[in-house]
Amino acid sequence: MKAIINIGLKKGVLDSAGKAAHHTLDTVGFKEIVKDVRIGKQIVMELNCSNEADAKDEATKMCEQLLANTVIEDYDITIEA
Amino acid sequence: MKVSVLQFPGTNCEYDTKYAFEKLGAEVVIVWHEETTLPEGTTLVVAPGGFSYGDYLRSGALAKFAPIMDAVKTYAANGGKVLGICNGFQILTETGLLPGALKRNDNLHFISKHHHLKVVNNENSFLQELEIGEIVNIPVAHHDGNFFIENDGLEELQKNGQILLQYCNEKGENQVLNGSVEQIAGVCNKEKNVFGLMPHPERAMEMLLGCDDGVKMLQGLLK
Predict the structure, then answer these.
(1) Could you give the CA distance from residue B21 to residue B23 in angstroms, rounded to a whole number?
(2) Would you list the DSSP string of B31-81?
(3) What's the pLDDT score for residue B142?
(4) What is the CATH number of the domain that holds A12?
(5) pTM of this prediction?
(6) Are B106 and A16 in contact (CB < 8 Å)?
(7) What is the ipTM of this complex?
(8) Contacts B149 to A, Cβ<8 Å
(9) Residue A81's pLDDT is what?
(10) How many domains does chain A have?
């Protein structure tokens, strides 16, 4: 099983890097197109799990304990067979 | 007084911290992260500055699972005094010993300079030697020092006198440095035995190096 985890700053927490990238996209001609930019990180893991539900449970535990800091970050997990 | 200074792979302020507390008359032991107990008779634990585990994942995130941290958590739970400076502050928030989190500076720069700080609360062993409103000038050197906490958490900090220091100008007026909520530079836990700050008092111990305001900050912890 493969877990694809996207981690980013929560809504309402200023994403300075996203804001800076947005500003630069504006200046190079995408001003009319880009509405918002958020920058986060993606963690891809191969898991030794036999079904999707177990894989999701384990990945959730990993996010809560280590991979995300839930004071400032949200995470989203996608499991692929 | 025996001060135990933690050392993780990537820590780089442990010897400055040792020098600072020895200058104040304490015995100082550097404790490697793979140890599972603190030296007997420890009266203060310091998590010093640096880049533990290369700041991989998030600053301080990997250090929270170092073997020595269980002993530090038990020590703090039993009322022992713990101080986190810079990366040490990040480690203590990641560990949950201190509230909030430290984000990338709003301007995305690594900020390294002297900065004024204002004492907000002194009813704690760390700042007992200083007056409320007193201004100290202490070096800051960080990339991830932007203190964040939700509004409810901030109200708790204010109500319980947990805000220790705020960034200010030389007149004591709050000044934005890195985007921290309420310009917070340091906080403590509710029980007032765990302290964290981004600035480096251990680098302000000698007039020869420009300022010795760190002396009156650190000596409170030895009383």
Answers:
(1) 5
(2) EETT-SSPPTT--EEEE--B-GGGG-SSTTTTGGGSTHHHHHHHHHHTT--
(3) 97
(4) 3.30.1280.10
(5) 0.95
(6) yes
(7) 0.89
(8) 71
(9) 86
(10) 1
